[in-house]
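Entry: DNA-binding SARP family transcriptional activator
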Amino acid sequence: MTVEFGLLGDLEVRVDGRLAEIGHVKQRSVLVALLAEQGRPVPVDRLIDRVWGERAPARARDTLYGYLSKLRQVLDIQREPGGYRLRADSVDLHRFRTLVEQARTQTDERALELFDEAIGLWRGPALAGLDPPWLAAFREELNVERVEAELDRTDLAIKLGRNVLPELRKAAAERPVDERLIGQLMLALHRAGNSAEALRHYEALRQRLADELGVDPGAPLRVLHEHILTANPAPTPRQLPAPQQWFTGRTTELAGVRGEGVTVIAGAGGVGKTALAVQWAHRHLDDYPDGQLYVNLRGFDPSGEPVTTGAALRGFLDALGEHGGQVSTARFRSLVAGKRLLILLDNARDTEQVAGLLPGTRSCAVLVTSRNRLPGLLADGAHLVPLDVLGGREARELLASRLGRARVAAEPGVVTELVGWCGGLPLALSIVAARAAMDQGLPLSALADELAGCGLDALDAGESGANLRAVFSWSRDALSDAAAELFALLGLVPSADTSLAAIEALFARPRVRMVLRELENAHLVQQHVAGRYRMHDLVRLYAADLAGENTEALRRFVDHHLRRAGAGALTLEPHRPLPELEPCERFPDAASAMRWFDNEHESLLAVQRVAAERGWHETTWLLARTMNYYHRRRGRTADELTVWHLGLSAAEQLGDKKKQAAAHTCIGLNHVEQSRTALAREHLGRCLELHDEDDFEARAGAHRAIAWALEFQGDFAGALTHALDALEGFRKAGLEMREAEALNEVGWRYACLGRYAEAAAYCEESMALNRRLGHAEGEAATLDSLAHIAHHDGRHADAIAHYHESLKRYRKLDNSYEEASVLHHLGDVHAAMNQHTEARELWDRALTLYRAQGRKNDATSLAEQLGR
């Protein structure tokens, strides 16, 4: 007869594998008291104390004998001189202790296996349902042993490089003041590259210990905290632009800026709002030890869109060391709560653009510059500092500080004339001063004569009263021939800023950097970040007047962007040829291509608009095509629709059916994404009509798009039919990469119909082909499908493994669109496993990406799932 005893969960006794009845609670307590001694005899008095404690009845000894007699009918219990002994060959508690002891003598994978086997013996809380005082203490002792074993196991797993974050996060939520556990979570996060979250866990524990117990974390945790800080010091952002070297006056306005809350500095363009804000900020740096944040919101940029709240927040979070993750006002406000930060929001268009960038604490100071007074902010308590042009004395002082007092004093009447021409506008005065400083030997009267002779109308009289056109033309006339030529050409640039490489293409002459430096010295161009140049918007308007119809230079500028976008597209999608742009020097990797697209996206949109306006139809269509994959990876559905409508119009002008079909496909798919079913059907149907019967590749692509649209509408059977047609077409065309993708898509549609065996067969064939071809994107998509199949087959561990592999590939490819979907699906698996903390964390991350990508349906569905 084999008898097995289980203490690590509900008390169990199995005789020859079958559960045996042990009796009521007190009798079961006697059995536990015997098992706890691991085969040693237990005196009667100790048994009585363990079963009844201080409440032992008068006839406890007789009652105990009765319990023992009943137990002896089933179990091998012997009476000995030292008490009663239970002979037990198999007790899960003893097995657990032996395995843990063995595991602690080793330091390799075998130790991890022993720990896993030991911890796997636990079936739940030890000895549930038994309540004698001694048993409560014994149960707690066992729980401590289990926790210590789990902690030892985690130490080893971290050392061996295992991913233990999901279970650590769950355990930390249950035991938030366990310092050793929090230390393990911090170390795992730090080694996973998420030191910022590790430091947040330390701060949460420190605050909790201080509030509840009045103590600090122990020495080991403080040492770990210091190590993480040393290895990854929390960044102190220093984003302020440099102050103007010759800033003058504005004493009253500087005094009016407040050191906490929100101050709005409002005034006309060129009046010096940014200069004032930056000057004040640099004078008060010591008041803000946690750093300074800056963003140019470009609210009045003549050709570009204002910076969105999300983009500005992303920059702030990056500056604060919070790379990746959710981008939200709430996260930003939580991060800066209690900090002494100075935040400069430059060139704001309206209150709405600013509201989401305000911290939720008065410990931070916010300076907002705008041409508008932003009444919404003022209504909420912001302080207004209105800014007008400089008075005569301050204007003269600015010129004196720039040119020298002796030079200004030598020609006071001329200086008065110059100040009059500039209308007290600091931008105009700075340009005049820069011109005069270039030629120290030239009398100021000669400069005044040049300026007076321009005879041009005021460019900005409505805002400032200054004859800016005259000031700009006069400054331009003082440039070298090369600088003057480049200045005019820069008026052709349709975006807010542009790169050095694009300017080199525009200018098509050597030594561009030196020429740009001359323009910088004349205050006509600013290199606001390394390698990128912009003009003040009033200067840009003047340069645009000078640019004229220089079609050749503009064509070079547009072609430069097209070639680089083509290189980026071919880097991201090497299997999708662009014969019109080959040969083309590609980017080193997908990440660098995505960075280029991120930096140049605004320029590319502007360049395509220019190409469309000029009737450069081939270029217009190709720009849409080269941005296609970038838009998909970033989830920029609205931008994708914009560029492809221009692309469709261009293809129609060209009379090119293939290009028209491609445009209809992309437009249709984007309408599907936005639930515009009728428009989607119209475009996708038109796509199929445009392809010839023997164009297998093109028709297969159309079937593929229609399958995706039908799936989105819930017609999985129809989607499968078109997916099979697509697979057949790609096979006939001999396109293996398209075939690999189509195999996965057929498998996915079978999975959507619940036909998992067929789904797995197609997806495994797809995976093998993708691997042979080195098609990383195809592998990632197929892993997502295999994970879905495993999840719905009940193989949750396989599903999690596949999803993590898919995430790894999508992140390497910088494909945040598909990353969002995989995070959502991974959360579903954890929810099915009752791991709700992990599930909500994954869903939150997916929801943030959905919203940032404009995926309204996905976002709404997931928000409902989260109960929001």
